[in-house]
UniProtKB/TrEMBL annotation:
<dbReference type="GO" id="GO:0004719">
    <property type="term" value="F:protein-L-isoaspartate (D-aspartate) O-methyltransferase activity"/>
</dbReference>
<keyword id="KW-0489">Methyltransferase</keyword>
<keyword id="KW-0808">Transferase</keyword>
<dbReference type="GO" id="GO:0005737">
    <property type="term" value="C:cytoplasm"/>
</dbReference>
<comment type="similarity">
    <text>Belongs to the methyltransferase superfamily. L-isoaspartyl/D-aspartyl protein methyltransferase family.</text>
</comment>
<dbReference type="InterPro" id="IPR000682">
    <property type="entry name" value="PCMT"/>
</dbReference>
<protein>
    <recommendedName>
        <fullName>Protein-L-isoaspartate O-methyltransferase</fullName>
        <ecNumber>2.1.1.77</ecNumber>
    </recommendedName>
</protein>
<comment type="function">
    <text>Catalyzes the methyl esterification of L-isoaspartyl residues in peptides and proteins that result from spontaneous decomposition of normal L-aspartyl and L-asparaginyl residues. It plays a role in the repair and/or degradation of damaged proteins.</text>
</comment>
<dbReference type="Pfam" id="PF01135">
    <property type="entry name" value="PCMT"/>
</dbReference>
<dbReference type="GO" id="GO:0032259">
    <property type="term" value="P:methylation"/>
</dbReference>
<keyword id="KW-0963">Cytoplasm</keyword>
<dbReference type="GO" id="GO:0030091">
    <property type="term" value="P:protein repair"/>
</dbReference>
<dbReference type="InterPro" id="IPR029063">
    <property type="entry name" value="SAM-dependent_MTases_sf"/>
</dbReference>
<feature type="active site">
    <location>
        <position position="65"/>
    </location>
</feature>
<keyword id="KW-0949">S-adenosyl-L-methionine</keyword>
Length: 219
């Protein structure tokens, strides 16, 4: 990144007004959201809208999630600096960039090749160097680098895909929008002693996770 950032003030206001004011308190997360230029992750036509309190279209019928939801899901993962994180649904790459600020390594799987390619460009422009994007069906996870300390699914799934549960490390956390195709509950799984504890949080509305262990068929 070089030159003055015209959106610094708007970004700080986003963190204060939309995120901290609603109860997100993880200081490392708040700092990451103050730092990462969200306007690099939206199509040029939406640049001025990048710091608004809503999701935005990124093409191919997909979206960059609302900043507050990015913050809530990330906080629920209880990340530690040495963690390796698997994200399913790269989209714009913004969530991956926030995760990359908080941990050592992020692997992010995206189903649509053109979306993955744009995300790669966005991450490069933002100077994020610890995110690896994989094109494929993320409902199968990414066994090559498992197990993961944290797994984040950023698309709506009817149930948490079994391969992703298998790829959780002992003590690992998984967060996913789970339930009906239109709107879902945010669910967190924690693996302890080989068993999975499940906690349900508030309602969210995500685009569908399409794949072998998610929703079947076209979007
Ligand atoms: N995390 C993204 C961001 O920061 O912009 C937002 C994700 S968007 C709401 C959901 C993404 O999940 C879309 O890009 C969609 O193509 C992707 N997706 C849907 N099914 C998938 C699957 N089986 N594997 C990987 N990605 C999938």
């Amino acid at each position: 990144m070089s030159g003055a950032d015209p959106y610094t003030e708007l970004r700080h206001a986003m963190v204060e007004g939309q995120i901290r004011a609603r109860g997100v308190s993880d200081q490392r997360l708040l700092a990451a959201m103050r730092k990462i230029p969200r306007h690099f992750f939206v199509p040029p036509a939406y640049e001025r809208a990048a710091y608004q309190d809503n999701p935005l279209p990124i093409g191919e019928g997909q979206t960059i999630s609302q900043p507050y939801i990015v913050a809530v899901m990330t906080e629920l993962l209880a990340l530690k600096p040495g963690d390796t994180v698997l994200e399913i649904g790269t989209g714009s790459g913004y969530q991956a960039a926030i995760l990359g600020e908080l941990v050592g390594r992020v692997i992010s799987v995206e189903r649509i090749a053109s979306v993955a390619e744009q995300a790669g460009e966005n991450l490069k422009r933002a100077g994020v160097g610890n995110v690896t994007i994989i094109v494929g069906d993320g409902t199968k996870g990414y066994p090559a680098e498992a197990p993961y300390d944290a797994i984040l699914i950023t698309a709506a799934t009817p149930t948490v895909p079994e391969p992703l549960i298998e790829q959780m490390a002992e003590g690992g956390r998984l967060v996913a929008p789970t339930g009906p195709r239109d709107c879902q509950d945010l669910v967190r799984l924690v693996k302890r002693g080989g068993q999975v504890e499940r906690t349900t949080f508030g309602g969210v509305c995500f685009v569908p996770l399409i794949g072998e262990y998610g929703w079947r068929g076209a979007d």
